[in-house]
Each structure stands twice: as structure tokens, then as C-alpha cells.
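quick one before i forget lol
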Amino acid sequence: MRNVLYLIALTTLISVQLKSQTSEDVKAKTESAISHGNDSTTINMTIDMSNYLHLMDSIDAISSKSTGYRIQVFSSSGPNARKDALQSQSDFLKIYRDYPSYTKWNYPNWVVRLGDYRTHLEAMEFHNEITSLFPASFIVKDEINVE
């Protein structure tokens, strides 16, 4: 978490300095600097801009996760817990093929969680729909995938 905050602060600082340059701008400036025989400072600045753009792409990939809500439909521990969790997930996917579901180890239990909901209200709407299938299910705060 600390690394993500550090990257955000760094990119904010760099973006304030470099404003609205794109990779095409960087390429054009590099070619211009080389063709006009400018000093290496200009070329280094354009290389730094290229690194900046690469850094922004990596931050976008990292930020595809966010805090949100999921519906937990299964939780168990013991020797057959993993198999039971996968069976529970399979039962869900037989009916709701297009909904995301996740089986994961959440010490000391295997859990099955459904959906990637940004708000509690969104999770509650789907939870009301599946309550008859999974009466013991409940909404939990979790890290979700954001598309």
C-alpha cells in the first residue's frame, strides 16, 4: 500500500511538471533534438518522459483493483474444505455463468465470493436475487477487480 501511495505521489509530481506531453510528443522532440544537434539535456528529458509514460502504464495496471463488496456464499475449513468450496462455486456457475466468482484461501477457511460491486447497494441487489439458493450468504467488504 505504501508503494502504491509513493507511486501516486511521484506521478502527480511528474505530471505537474510535464503537463500534457504524449509519447508522440516525446518521439518528435527526440528526433528534432537529434537532427538539430541539440545537447544531451534535451535528449535525456525526452528519455525521462518515455520512462514517465511507462510508469503511468504500470500504475494503471495496478489500479485495476479497488475496495468494494462481494457476496460470500461459502466458508469452511477442514480436509475437504477446498473441494467443497470448488463444488459450491461450480453450483453457482451452473446457474449464473456470466457473474464473476472467486474461490480463495482466507486463513483458516476456504471461501467462495461472488461479484465485483463498487457499492453496498449493488451487492445487495444481487444478494437478494441469490438468497434462496444461498440462504447463509452475506455481503463482505473485499478487494474487487475494476474494469
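fyi Strands lie at 65-76, 101-106, 109-117, 138-145.
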